[in-house]
Amino acid sequence: MKTNMLKSLKIGKYTIKYPIIQGGMGVGISWNELAGNVSLQGALGTISCVGTGYYKKMQFAEKIIRSKPFEAVNFYSKNALNEIFKNARKICGDLPLAANILYAINEYGRVVKDACEAGANIIITGAGLPTNMPEFTKNFPDVALIPIVSSAKALRIICERWKKRYNKIPDAVIVEGPLSGGHQGFKYEDCFKEEFQLENIVPEVVKETKQYGNIPVIAAGGIWDKDDIDKFIALGASGVQMATRFLGTFECDAEIYNEIMPKIKKEDIRLIKSPVGYPARAIDIGILKAMRDGNAPKISCVSNCVAPCHRGIEAKKVGYCIADRLGDANNGNMETGLYFTGANGYRIDKIISVKDLISELVGK
Fold first, then answer.
1. 3-state secondary structure (DSSP) of residue 175
2. Closest C-alpha among 288, 273, 277, 270 to residue 343
3. In a 10 Å sphere around its CB, with 0-12 CB exposed, 13-18 middle and 19+ buried, how is residue 291 labelled?
4. Has residue 102 got a pLDDT over 50?
5. What are the beta bridge partners of residue 272?
6. How do strand 182-183 and strand 217-220 relate by DSSP bridges?
7. Of 24, 54, 32, whose CA–CA distance to 332 is shortest?
8. Does domain 9-61+74-259+347-362 have CATH number 3.20.20.70?
9. What is the DSSP letter of 352?
10. What does DSSP assign to residue 63?
């Protein structure tokens, strides 16, 4: 079923012209250039709050050790986040902007407050069940909250906790299937099972939202073109989230992706283990090759980025520090960087502008 015109997307007090959310990508993939231009073109730009200490060669981090932001207070730099939002606003003005903040990070609550103060209109959180998310936005009643889930059960837990504790339900929910880039909300083996594919979990989440009123459902994970958008809207979604497509735009803040994406093949994309405790989808270059070759950098926890890693214990088990390797990717280091992409990343054959991509997606 196809729709000729995509309807706008209402999230809390905000109206997004096109029902497309650009997924948050860190470190440094979706900062001011990408997010600002996505919002400017009528979709929802999302600033990743991961690793902001690396912004503009770490000039906003207050303490650096061994060329890395020291501790979570610098890895998630408030000063840098303020600057990113300020520069994004120079591009998109007062149009809605979102912030993506992983629940698994150290100092989650502080970073949520930082994002609200920096000017985020919408907070998006995945990588865990954010059952206390509203706790940190009580002083920002206009900020809309969107959790990311991978099942109707996860949404039910969030809604029940939020209703009981805060008398609130999510302003929208993103349901992410196992074809997305970066961290997955599934066990490794479940990523390949039919019942966990996006087209099968979206209707279940849509049905669950009816228990709580009108919660817009956003489908994510492997969305590629307008046919996909129409498909998931027909399944009951109000919109989609897309990230990988924006790796193939000139405005992508991590410019190295402009060089990488048109060259990769389907077999270059694989699911790997992560110190965060979830499977993650990445390109088989950089640190993944270095680990195979036996010359991966020594692991020492400097940035203390995510709670599940337990100060580098999990990093040593999987063979790499995620903060350091994503930081290397942001710096364009092809030998030791970790490069995330969705399962369809190999389909990017040329780099285009955000404006042209949005036009293509909405069928202009």
1. strand
2. 270
3. middle
4. yes
5. 280
6. unpaired
7. 54
8. yes
9. B
10. -
Give residue 4's pLDDT band: very low, low, confident or very high (50, 70, 90): low
One-letter identity of residue 210:
K
- AA identity, residue 296: A
What pLDDT, on a 0 to 100 scale, did the predictor assign at position 195? 87
Report percent pLDDT > 70 for the chain: 99
- The percent of residues in the chain predicted with pLDDT above 90, rounded, is 90
Residues 46/70, Cβ–Cβ less than 8 Å = no
Structural contact between residues 178 and 221, judged by C-beta atoms closer than 8 angstroms? yes
Amino acid in the structure at residue 155 = L
* Residue 169 to residues 22, 87, 112, 143, Cα–Cα distance (Å): 22, 31, 18, 13
Backbone phi, then psi, for 241, in 5-degree steps? -115, 135
- Roughly what angle, to the nearest 10 degrees, separates helices 78-92 and 32-40? 30
- First and final CA of the chain: distance in angstroms? 18
C-alpha–C-alpha distance, residues 338 and 177, integer Å: 22
Task: Tell me the C-alpha distance between 364 and 362, whole Å.
Answer: 6
- Strand pairing report for 45-48 and 269-272: unpaired
Q: Is pLDDT of 45 > 70? A: yes
- Residues 233-265 as b/e (b if ≥16 CB within 10 A, e otherwise) read bebbbbbbbbbbbbbbbbbbbbebbbebbeebe
Please name the helix (run of DSSP H) or strand (run of DSSP E) that holds residue 144, with its range, or none.
strand 144-149
Is residue 76 within 8 A of residue 105, CB to CB? The reply is yes
* Omega prior to 318 cis, within 30 of 0: no
Structure tokens at 356: 């042209």
Average pLDDT rounded to a whole number, residues 187-216: 90
71 or 4, which is more confident: 71
Buried b (16+ CB within 10 A) or exposed e, 10-46: bbbebebbbbbbbbbbbbbbbbbbbbbbbbbbbbbbb
What DSSP character marks residue 192? G
Q: Is 310 left (phi over 0), alpha (psi -120 to 50) or beta?
A: left
How far, in Å, are 22, 35, 98 from residue 46 at the CA level? 6, 5, 4
